[in-house]
Amino acid sequence: MSDRPSKRTLALPWSELVLVVGLIIAAIYMNGLSPAFLSFSNFFEITRISVETGLAALGMTLVIITGGIDLSVGSVLGLSGIVMGILHHMGLEVWLAAAIAVGTGALCGFINGQLITRAGIPPLIVTLATLAIFRGLALGISQARSFGSYPPEFLALGAGYLGSVPTQLLVFGVLALLVGLLLAKTTLGRFIYAIGNNAMAARFSGVPVNRVLVLVYTLSGALAGVAGVIFTARVSSARSDAGIGTELDAITAVVLGGASISGGSGSIVGTLLGLLLVGVVRNGLTLAFIPAEQQAIIIGSILLVAVLLNQVIRLRSRRN
Amino acid sequence: MDAETSLLKLENIEKRFGGTRALRGVSFDLNPGEVHALLGENGAGKSTLIKILSGAYRPDSGRILLEGNEAGFGSPRQAQAAGIATIYQETSLYPDLSVLENLFMGHQPMRAGRIDWAEMSHRAQGLFERLGMELPLRARLGDLGKARAQLVEIAKALLQQARILILDEPTAALTTRDTERLMEVVRGLRTQGVAMIYITHRLEEVFTIADRVSVLRDGEMVGSAKAGEFDSNWLISKMVGRVAGQLFPRNPRPTGKPLLEVRHLSQPGLLEDINLTIHEGEIVGLAGLVGSGRTEVARAIFGLDSYASGEVLLEGQPLPRSPQGAIQQGVALLPEDRGRQGLILPFSLGKNMTLPLLRLGGWLGGNLEDKVFAEFSQKLDIRPPLAALLASSLSGGNQQKVVIAKWLATRPKVLILDEPTQGVDVGAKAEIHRLMDELVGQGLGILMISSELVEVLGMADRILVMHRGRIAGELPRGATQEDVMRAATGSIAAGVQA
Amino acid sequence: MYVDRGRELSIIFFLVLLGIVLAVFAPGFYNARNASDILVNISYITIAAMGMTAVILTAQIDISVGAILAACSTVAGLSAKAGVPIPLVFLYAIGTGAAIGLINGLLVAYARIPSIIVTLGMLTVIRGVIILVTGGSWIYDLPANFRTVGTGSTLGLPNPVWLMLATLLVGAWVFSQTRWGRSLYAVGSNPAAARLAGIAVERTYVSVFMLSGALVGLATMAFATRFTTVQSNTGQGFEFVVITAVVVGGTNIFGGSGTALGSFLGALLVGVTGTALTFLRVSAYWEQSLQGLFILLAVALDVARKRGALNFSFRWPSSRRPT
Predict the structure, then answer these.
(1) Is the distance from CB of B129 to CB of B49 less than 8 angstroms?
(2) Beta-carbon contacts below 8 Å between B and C
(3) Chains that contact B by 3+ CB pairs under 8 Å?
(4) By CA distance, what is A68's nearest residue in C?
(5) Taking the domain C6-303, which CATH number applies?
(6) Among B242-256, C96-110, C115-129, C308-322, which stretch is predicted with the lowest mean pLDDT?
(7) What is the ipTM of this complex?
């Protein structure tokens, strides 16, 4: 221990810098593979398909900063979509059904939060179990049928444009801004970081730890619910298998964005960069006629390398 | 004692941590079959010395001789292989496994490719008979309770051929009866030729069990004597080494109206009918052995733990049962574990200090951190005065000042201090004591928990002594260490019953 | 050795209860064919669960087992089609699993990346590599001698069941009677103490992940051999079923306690309830929810027990007379 200011106080978030540099390199390289890459319309197509993962990743960022994890987001996405589909099928007004779907997502998250804080079961296990439970509910109540025939004004949410910007991108942009503000500028955000760094000290300092955690998981569920609605609008059908694997993509984006999986650090800007990197790589590879499935290997490797780098630097700085 | 007969000999051990000299030329020796008690206040260097002996730290200079041969322990395993075993308060056992497995983990005897359970039981029984111990071999260790877990630790060390046992406050959390049992075991070990370094705060144990005693103070060995050649006055004067008045600047003042009242607070198994009152301008000391329930009282008042019955009043109004509520009403708790409970080490000083001021559902104010930091860094002389500095980069004393500042920023009426000067250097300690006096001068009430008797005696206007979850006695200012000890060990009821 | 049989007994109790319900409402459940089907269906789960038990005993987790199952099945399928002798085919599969497990283990033990992240990344990488190798197409026309391993019987019992029983016996013996087996409990219960006791904690982590991978490789003998094709998305959700079996079977998710028999009973419970649902005319789509509930229930029990016993927390010994 020394009385001098440590280097880390003044350092810029290096992980975000690295990410920006990586992004630029990737973009230039992709553009070399296919000149169509750097056009605006292409950029928007990247984002359209990433919005659902992106929404889940926003909530996941908060969850991971608290030191938790939410594996259930993909299932919540599927369940919310099904709830909306069934309600609309039963004759409910489409936007009301959508609102109830988002509420369903929030309720799922709330249940996660209660199980974690009250029953004291680790988040990994709670959300692993609810991953199965929520997916099972989606399958059970829909009996694996899908629900379609939505009005065009609803479908525009998933396939339309406002100006030249895809609709859901705007929705995502607004939500990302809100969550970003929440994390950076409100007391809730400060509490989230405090809990992730040292939950016990946070509790001793009067932070309502359990309430914050329940809020965070509820928010994660609600955002997954929004993603479920947007998914339904994009593919114009609610399907019980929607969002399988979304949790992995979301975690990848968050961790790529520099969040520590053990909690305490991370940011919405980082997550957005992480999302963009995954989107850019995926899209560039598609344009370069590399089969979609093969891209998984590259993205998985990027995740491992990023975490490895992160860890090596962390271990080294701890030693010093 | 010369090197030939000594089993273990330390010569001129030096150890520094940053700018602090934790050990200054300490020499120490231990003979076979001897119980050598090591005394000293918190922060005197005992734990550093133990860690050097057990291989967790390396000394900066000096020699360690084992049977006359130079030995340097690069790791705990090497020390263990050399026959030195440390029995920590925090047991290093496996709660989910049986006693028998705990005894032999990593060293199980094998026969025909499998673990030889019969041989293990046989060896364990043999040892237990030799020592007169009785332990259920097949019970789950986690179900045993602390006292017997400690015996398992000792037995484990002996099964691994330990010749030197370091007992670090072995009786801290034991009842009188368990303590007697442990004493029997220690005597048994002594006749078997096992040498022991016995660290304790309980003076009466030193008289019952020690063949020799050595006292550490501020990293120096200040005295050593054989059994029968020392008395408690000698021990205390060696441990404290200075007149109490210099270290504990108290200005006696008249006390005001009651601030915090605790009535019939009970939680089965932990606290029994706790009653206490803290007045304006008063420091109330809460003494007692580790595990007697002092911290539990503080936690219950602050709303961290629930309690079954009783009430806590602040200025006559019931105090909400949550830390948030308690803070809002004007109660603050400085917890015992600074690094884990007091501070968020990766947070800046400014963020740490303002954390209790924030309420869920608000925006972060622009300059709250700077304002609070500016006020209190000056008041408490926090160095360096940079709000953006991470808490982890400060020294122990400055960290503690940040925790105090954090609580003062909430403008508390009652301040509960749990071990406020633990792991703090002498200079910062004096500053904290001066501040405490100043605060009660401004009308605050302070409840101070401390394991350092001299500190309690020096700072408190009244002392409540806890024993086994109850307040066993109340002593006025001017009470002696012996008075407190008697009440704390429950041997004799002392003072006015609370 | 301290063994808690509580969970095993509860599962047996629950199975008996379910048995009575079935006897009343769906007596058709009771026939030899159905029993043998259930056992065959849980065989590869149980085999992989032995490895997962070791991993969870050390307080780690391996969520890449589904992808490893796909990788090993692909390796086995491709090499069987290429005419590699059958014993060698399975050696390749086991080797593949062990090699992947080795990488997992090294990253967890030495790079100190949390196992959930390591195995999550590994899962993606493996799935990608499989597609790269197979081009995303299924492997058809597996040779007959390959398929006999999974569809044939020996002494009246299907081969996969024999394989399961053998793995279970060896697993039970290793976990309870060998130093390595007991060291898993020590590492999961108190890693610092284990290190002090001379247990090579890092190497233990590497070994459990290798074992987990190798056993998934072994499980392909009871899995890939039963079908005519190897599908490109083989093993999706397998990790969930295996973790369910282990956790429901009483292995503490925080490490330090659990048994091989428990994990087998957990797998049995999962298998029997799955089949029972069909016989009770409950749509199979609900099965996943039920498994999730089982996990929650099992872990809630662990947590309650941990809170109740509060290991080493302070208690007044007066309430607890020494014996």
Answers:
(1) no
(2) 109
(3) A, C
(4) C116
(5) 1.10.3470
(6) C308-322
(7) 0.82
